[in-house]
Amino acid sequence: MKHLFTITTTIILGLLLSSGLMAQSVEFDYTDGSKSSYDLEDVAQITFTGNILNLKLKDGTVYSNDISTIQKFQYDETTVGIEQALENMNALEIQAYPNPNNGNFQIAYTLPKTAKIQVSIVNIEGKTIKDVFEGTQQAGKQTHQVQLPEAASGTYIYRISSERMTVSKQMIIKK
User: Fold this and answer.
1) Is the peptide bond prior to 100 cis by the omega test (within 30 degrees of 0)?
2) Which residue of 22, 28, 99, 135 lies most exposed, with the fewest beta carbons within 10 A?
3) Terminal alpha carbon distance of the chain
4) d(Cα 124, Cα 19) in Å, to the nearest integer?
5) Which residue, among 60, 74, 75, 59, has the nearest Cα to 22 in the 3D structure?
6) pTM exceeds 0.85
7) Does residue 41 sit in helix, strand or coil?
């Protein structure tokens, strides 16, 4: 099984049901038959780094598992096989270029199907500094030109959110 994520890519799952309501729990079924479950109130984020799924709780505890040991994960009525989760996340791959940049850059992504999305830029404190796009876009490659003339040099997060997940990456602005 080939995984298309590098050690520097952080993918954050939004874990939202299509109704827009927050799921109550996330459950993992492992290939050895064991299971684990967490209340979503306690989950800060779920990330994939390479072949490792990291579950970070709000208390700072991090659980890491090689994805080959996870058969599926489920949140409320939605069950997702690990292969499907990776396919879905790869489908929402996002790239900013150039990176680093001087505050003028492009964000590009490819949507596998028509979807309601939001593209935004967030500073390191988590404050949204620019909403790049919000609305429904057709399947295919999308590109947005972004200009942040007032942004100071530093690390920023660019992200694309759909109804079911959020993909976030870092970029550097150097002025």
Assistant:
1) yes
2) 135
3) 41
4) 30
5) 75
6) no
7) helix
3-class secondary-structure state, position 175: coil
Burial 97-128 (b: 16+ CB within 10 A, else e): eeeebebebebebebeeebebebbbeeeeeee
Structure tokens that stand for 37 in this block: 């479950």
Give the pair of three-digit tokens for residue 127. Answer: 């404050």
Matching residue, tokens 């990776």: 86
Instruction: Render 83-145 in DSSP notation, one character per residue.
Output: HHHHHHHHHT-EEEESSSBSSEEEEEEEESS-EEEEEEEEETTS-EEEEEEEEEE-SEEEEEE
pLDDT in tens, 42-85: 877 776 666 777 777 888 888 888 877 877 766 555 555 555 55
Q: Annotate 69-95 with DSSP letters as a single string.
A: GEEEEEETTEEEEHHHHHHHHHHT-EE
Beta bridge partner(s), residue 105: 146
Burial 67-82 (b: 16+ CB within 10 A, else e): beebebbbbbeeebeb
* DSSP at 68: G
Query: Per this entry, what is the length of the chain?
Result: 175
Query: Which residues contact residue 160 at a Cβ distance below 8 angstroms, ignoring those fewer than 6 apart?
Result: 92, 94, 107, 109, 117, 118, 119, 166, 167
Kindly report the number of other CB atoms within 10 A of residue 11's CB atom: 23
